[in-house]
Hints:
The chain has about 160 residues and is mainly alpha-helical. It has one domain. It has helices spanning about 1-25, 30-65, 70-85, 90-100, 100-120, and strands at about 125-130, 135, 140, 150. The strands form two sheets. Strands 1-4 form a two-stranded antiparallel ribbon. Strands 2-3 form a two-stranded antiparallel sheet. The two termini are about 30 Å apart. It comes from Eilatimonas milleporae.
Amino acid sequence: MPWLILFILVGLPLIELYLLIEIGSVIGAAQTILLSLVTAALGITLVRRQGLGILARLQREARTADRLGVSLVHGFFLAFAGLLLLVPGFMTDTLGALLLIPPVRLWMGRGLVTGLARSGGRSHTVIIIDGEVYESSTGPKSEPAEGETEILPPRRRP
Protein backbone atom coordinates (compact mmCIF):
# COMPACT_ATOMS: atom_id res chain seq x y z
CA MET A 1 0.00 0.00 0.00
CA PRO A 2 2.78 2.53 0.73
CA TRP A 3 4.17 1.90 -2.77
CA LEU A 4 0.80 2.71 -4.32
CA ILE A 5 0.58 5.98 -2.42
CA LEU A 6 4.15 6.85 -3.41
CA PHE A 7 3.34 6.10 -7.06
CA ILE A 8 0.21 8.27 -6.97
CA LEU A 9 1.97 11.20 -5.29
CA VAL A 10 5.29 11.08 -7.13
CA GLY A 11 5.19 8.71 -10.09
CA LEU A 12 1.92 9.79 -11.68
CA PRO A 13 2.81 13.52 -11.85
CA LEU A 14 6.25 12.66 -13.26
CA ILE A 15 4.71 10.49 -15.99
CA GLU A 16 2.20 13.22 -16.80
CA LEU A 17 4.94 15.84 -16.96
CA TYR A 18 7.04 13.64 -19.25
CA LEU A 19 4.09 13.08 -21.59
CA LEU A 20 3.24 16.79 -21.66
CA ILE A 21 6.84 17.68 -22.55
CA GLU A 22 7.08 15.00 -25.25
CA ILE A 23 3.74 15.87 -26.85
CA GLY A 24 4.54 19.59 -26.53
CA SER A 25 7.81 19.10 -28.39
CA VAL A 26 5.94 17.43 -31.25
CA ILE A 27 2.84 19.64 -31.62
CA GLY A 28 3.92 22.79 -29.78
CA ALA A 29 3.31 24.21 -26.33
CA ALA A 30 0.18 26.22 -27.14
CA GLN A 31 -1.48 23.29 -28.91
CA THR A 32 -0.60 20.96 -26.02
CA ILE A 33 -2.20 23.30 -23.49
CA LEU A 34 -5.24 23.78 -25.72
CA LEU A 35 -5.59 20.02 -26.26
CA SER A 36 -5.37 19.42 -22.52
CA LEU A 37 -8.08 22.02 -21.85
CA VAL A 38 -10.34 20.67 -24.62
CA THR A 39 -10.07 17.06 -23.38
CA ALA A 40 -10.86 18.18 -19.82
CA ALA A 41 -13.90 20.22 -20.94
CA LEU A 42 -15.16 17.45 -23.24
CA GLY A 43 -14.67 14.84 -20.54
CA ILE A 44 -16.47 16.85 -17.88
CA THR A 45 -19.38 17.46 -20.29
CA LEU A 46 -19.65 13.72 -21.00
CA VAL A 47 -19.40 12.84 -17.31
CA ARG A 48 -22.14 15.33 -16.43
CA ARG A 49 -24.43 14.03 -19.16
CA GLN A 50 -23.90 10.36 -18.25
CA GLY A 51 -23.95 11.15 -14.54
CA LEU A 52 -27.39 12.75 -14.70
CA GLY A 53 -28.71 9.64 -16.45
CA ILE A 54 -27.18 7.36 -13.84
CA LEU A 55 -28.51 9.54 -11.01
CA ALA A 56 -32.03 9.27 -12.43
CA ARG A 57 -31.60 5.49 -12.79
CA LEU A 58 -30.30 5.22 -9.21
CA GLN A 59 -33.37 7.03 -7.89
CA ARG A 60 -35.69 4.83 -9.94
CA GLU A 61 -33.94 1.62 -8.88
CA ALA A 62 -33.83 2.67 -5.23
CA ARG A 63 -37.61 2.91 -5.25
CA THR A 64 -38.01 -0.51 -6.87
CA ALA A 65 -34.90 -2.21 -5.37
CA ASP A 66 -33.91 -3.35 -8.85
CA ARG A 67 -30.20 -3.85 -9.71
CA LEU A 68 -29.07 -1.01 -7.50
CA GLY A 69 -25.50 -2.34 -7.31
CA VAL A 70 -24.89 -1.97 -11.05
CA SER A 71 -25.93 1.67 -10.99
CA LEU A 72 -23.75 2.29 -7.94
CA VAL A 73 -20.76 0.84 -9.78
CA HIS A 74 -21.48 3.07 -12.78
CA GLY A 75 -21.86 6.12 -10.53
CA PHE A 76 -18.66 5.44 -8.58
CA PHE A 77 -16.50 4.95 -11.65
CA LEU A 78 -18.13 7.87 -13.45
CA ALA A 79 -17.21 10.13 -10.51
CA PHE A 80 -13.67 8.73 -10.62
CA ALA A 81 -13.56 9.39 -14.38
CA GLY A 82 -14.56 13.00 -13.73
CA LEU A 83 -11.74 13.36 -11.22
CA LEU A 84 -9.24 11.89 -13.69
CA LEU A 85 -10.46 14.19 -16.45
CA LEU A 86 -10.04 17.26 -14.22
CA VAL A 87 -6.39 16.47 -13.55
CA PRO A 88 -4.33 17.98 -16.38
CA GLY A 89 -2.44 15.42 -18.39
CA PHE A 90 -2.86 12.93 -21.16
CA MET A 91 -2.51 9.71 -19.19
CA THR A 92 -5.23 10.63 -16.69
CA ASP A 93 -7.41 11.88 -19.56
CA THR A 94 -6.99 8.52 -21.31
CA LEU A 95 -7.87 6.58 -18.16
CA GLY A 96 -10.85 8.88 -17.53
CA ALA A 97 -12.04 8.46 -21.12
CA LEU A 98 -11.84 4.67 -20.76
CA LEU A 99 -14.04 4.87 -17.67
CA LEU A 100 -16.68 6.69 -19.74
CA ILE A 101 -17.31 3.40 -21.57
CA PRO A 102 -20.01 1.42 -19.66
CA PRO A 103 -18.56 -2.10 -20.27
CA VAL A 104 -15.19 -0.92 -18.95
CA ARG A 105 -16.89 0.42 -15.79
CA LEU A 106 -18.66 -2.92 -15.27
CA TRP A 107 -15.42 -4.84 -15.79
CA MET A 108 -13.63 -2.61 -13.26
CA GLY A 109 -16.57 -2.98 -10.84
CA ARG A 110 -16.43 -6.77 -11.04
CA GLY A 111 -12.70 -6.67 -10.36
CA LEU A 112 -13.18 -4.33 -7.41
CA VAL A 113 -15.96 -6.42 -5.87
CA THR A 114 -13.99 -9.64 -6.36
CA GLY A 115 -10.88 -8.10 -4.78
CA LEU A 116 -12.83 -6.77 -1.81
CA ALA A 117 -14.57 -10.11 -1.31
CA ARG A 118 -11.25 -11.95 -1.32
CA SER A 119 -9.54 -9.64 1.11
CA GLY A 120 -12.58 -9.34 3.38
CA GLY A 121 -13.00 -13.10 3.77
CA ARG A 122 -9.52 -13.70 5.15
CA SER A 123 -9.12 -10.98 7.73
CA HIS A 124 -12.71 -10.87 8.92
CA THR A 125 -13.67 -12.11 12.39
CA VAL A 126 -17.13 -11.97 13.92
CA ILE A 127 -17.29 -11.14 17.62
CA ILE A 128 -20.63 -11.32 19.39
CA ILE A 129 -20.96 -9.90 22.87
CA ASP A 130 -24.19 -10.49 24.82
CA GLY A 131 -26.16 -11.31 21.72
CA GLU A 132 -28.06 -14.14 20.13
CA VAL A 133 -26.92 -15.94 17.01
CA TYR A 134 -29.41 -17.63 14.72
CA GLU A 135 -28.30 -20.03 12.04
CA SER A 136 -30.77 -20.38 9.20
CA SER A 137 -30.69 -24.18 9.33
CA THR A 138 -30.33 -24.85 13.07
CA GLY A 139 -32.59 -22.29 14.76
CA PRO A 140 -31.63 -20.36 17.90
CA LYS A 141 -28.19 -20.96 19.33
CA SER A 142 -27.60 -21.10 23.07
CA GLU A 143 -26.67 -17.82 24.67
CA PRO A 144 -23.17 -17.29 26.08
CA ALA A 145 -22.85 -17.38 29.86
CA GLU A 146 -22.87 -14.14 31.85
CA GLY A 147 -19.82 -12.05 30.89
CA GLU A 148 -18.67 -14.60 28.31
CA THR A 149 -17.61 -13.49 24.84
CA GLU A 150 -18.19 -15.73 21.85
CA ILE A 151 -15.79 -15.54 18.94
CA LEU A 152 -16.86 -17.17 15.70
CA PRO A 153 -14.61 -17.99 12.75
CA PRO A 154 -15.23 -16.08 9.54
CA ARG A 155 -18.11 -17.39 7.45
CA ARG A 156 -17.43 -18.33 3.86
CA ARG A 157 -20.13 -17.80 1.30
CA PRO A 158 -20.79 -20.64 -1.13
